[in-house]
Structure formats: structure tokens, C-alpha cells
Amino acid sequence: MTKLFDLTLTAARSDIIVSRISQSYLHLYVTAMSRDTGTGDGTLSHCWTQFNGDTGSNYSIQEFRGVLGATVDAVELLAQGFGIPVCAQSISTSVANGAGSGWMLIPNYSRQDYKKAVVSQFAVQFGTDDMGIVLCGGYWNNTAAIHTIRFESQGGAFAAGSRICIYGVP
Amino acid sequence: MQKIAEANPTGASVSFTGIPQGYNSLRVVLAGRGSAAAASTTVTLSFNGDTTAAHYAYQYAYGTAAIAGAAEDISDPGILAGGVTAASGVAGDQGVIIVDIPNYAGTTYSKAAIVQNIRRETALTGGMFTIMLGGFWISGGTAAINRVDLVLASGNFVAGTTATLYGLP
Question: Nearest chain B Cα to A72, which residue?
Fold first, then answer.
């Protein structure tokens, strides 16, 4: 695995755009550890990814979650323009110094055989005794090779200290 | 993570044989589609060519739409590794299967696999599946794993499917 991108924010920022991603690997592996300066949906904020500048309603996701202790549930978002989450983030009202951490695998990102299917898994801390763990499957309805990834913080901005890494997988 | 082997299967299965024993863990990434006349088709995982009935057990949990569920099978000839989109699934879609096999070369404990799978059968509500599975080679003793097979329940893999075996040092 080869590290292609590594950014730790020194100041809050609403999005991070990584372009001209090398097309020389088979898969991309993304890691994120981040916190939102805003309030998100009141509990958490997603760190969304969008591909190649596509902000249209071309993304669908299915999450399978364990949250807030004993709750197990599932959520789908069809044909939406947010994107696919690499992690859920702690927000301004979350526990101090809390953050969300996650990884994402984008198989065959540089090939054009099939629409892109993405797997991500992440954990997030809301409060001192409130946590969440999520496995997410996401689809981008496009067969294009991925050359640009935009990371967007759902609730406001990525807080300073948030970190995004991208690796090329041979 | 180092690539050990890469395959572009077009038959009913993909096999990684003669796996070197010099790593700590194995990871398999399969991304692709099947030809079966169905919206999706399942994929079964086995080790060292052992497909004997009742030699494997697995537990899985899944989410689809707003439904979360779980199930087990304690007597099976392989480990369910989820499935891939098939002929009548969403056009152009693929399924993804990630398999991790910790301590595959060890000879102290029986072997287990951790699997994550996503696939989409329709673009409508309830058409996507996100699944996590834990599988156990319950009759494999403590044998080191030197072969991994992924076999479709029906049909063949479609061109464009990739399966890659990695070693984690």
C-alpha cells in the first residue's frame, strides 16, 4: 500500500478536495479521523465523499448500525447528492476531544467496467457513554474512473486536527 | 499490505493456491458480478480444498432499508461470504466482498474469517444489502491455510470481476 495523500488540518475547513489521484493502483483505501465544528443532525455529522465533482443525486447508501447502547438498526439513503460517508463525526456538542474514525475501500476505482461500489466502516463517540459503530455500503451510479475525491463535513466544517489519508492498493 | 495474487475470474469460482506462509494475516478483495439468472448470487468461502458437509459454521448480521437482522448456520460445507449482483440486478452494478483471515499460517487455533459484503439488487428501497459475517472452519483443526476458494452458488463471474489476495505483514 502506498500513501498518496495525508492532510491534518491546522484550521477549520468546510471541505477537502483531492484531485489528480494516480490511476496506477487497483483499489483506493481511505482513512479519516475527524470532528465537525457544527451541530450536524443534532447527534452526529457525516464526513461525506463525492467523486469527480459529481454533486448530483447519484449516490445511494445502506448503513447497518449499532448505536447508543443496545440499538441495532439500518438506514438507507437512495439517489441523494450528499455522497458516501467515510466516517461519522463527533459534533460541537459531543464529548470533548471526541472524533469519528473510519476507513473506506474503493475497489477498481480506476477501471470503467462497473459502477463504483464502496465499503466503509466507522466508529463515532457522541457522549461519554454514547457511541456508534457503522458498516456502510455505497454506490456511485457512474462507471468513470475516479480521479477526484471531495470530502465534505455535513454539519459545518472539519475541526482543526481532523486528518484524511488516501492510499493506493496494488 | 502486499499483493500475493490477482485474478480476473470468468468461471464459477476463484482459487488462490500455494499461499505463502510468511505473513501475519490474509485479505481477499473481490469486486464484480455474476451471470446467474437472479438479482444476486451468493459466494461461499472454503479453505485448503475442504468442502465437506458440516465443516464450517458462520454468523452474520445485515442491514437492508430500515431492517436489521442476523442469522447463523452451524453446519455447512463452507462459509457464506455474502454475494454479488447478478444478471437481473441493477445494470452495471457490482458487489464487493472483503475477507480477512487473521493468523492464517498459525497452527495453534482453528481458523476464522471476518467478511464484509455489499451488493445492490434493485435501485428501489430494500434493494441494497450491507452484511458482516464471521465464519469458522470448525473441522479444520489447527491446520495452516494454504488455499482459499470463493465459489458462486450459480452461474459464472462476469468479465471485469477482480479478486485479489493480499498478505499483511
Answer: B68
Q: Cβ B68–A73 below 8 Å, yes or no? A: yes
CA–CA separation, B9 and A46 (whole Å): 36
| DSSP secondary structure of A47-94 | EEEEETT--SS-EEEEEEEEETTTEEEEEEEEEESS-EEEEEEB-TTS
- Work out whether strand B95-102 and strand B112-120 pair parallel, antiparallel, or are unpaired: antiparallel
Residue type for position B81: A
Q: What ipTM does the predicted assembly reach?
A: 0.93
Q: What's the 3-state SS for B133-167?
A: EEEECCCCCCCCCCCEEEEECCCCECCCCEEEEEE
CA–CA dist B158, B28 (Å, integer): 18
Report the distance separating Cα A64 and Cα A83, nearest Å.
Answer: 17
Place of cell 462476469: B158
Alpha helices in chain B (DSSP H): none
* Contact call for residues B117 and B28 (beta carbons, < 8 A): no
Instruction: Please tell me the distance from the alpha carbon of residue A116 to that of residue B168, in angstroms, as a whole number.
Output: 25
**What residue type is assigned to position B110 of the chain?**
S
Whole-angstrom Cα distance, residue B119 to residue B129?
A: 5
CA–CA min distance A74, chain B (Å): 5
pLDDT tens-place string over residues A43-68: 778 999 999 999 999 999 999 999 88
Q: What is the 3-state secondary structure (H, E, C) of A128-164?
A: CCEEEEEEEEEEECCCCCCCCEEEEECCCCECCCCEE
Does A69 contact B at CB distance below 8 Å?
no
The answer to whether A139 faces chain B, any CB pair under 8 Å, is yes
Q: What is the pLDDT of residues A134-157, one digit of tens each?
A: 999 999 999 999 999 999 999 889
| Yes or no, beta carbons of A135 and B67 under 8 Å apart | no
User: In terms of pTM, does the model score above 0.90?
Assistant: yes
Among all residues of chain B, which has the CA nearest to that of A74?
Answer: B66
Cell digits for A101?
474514525
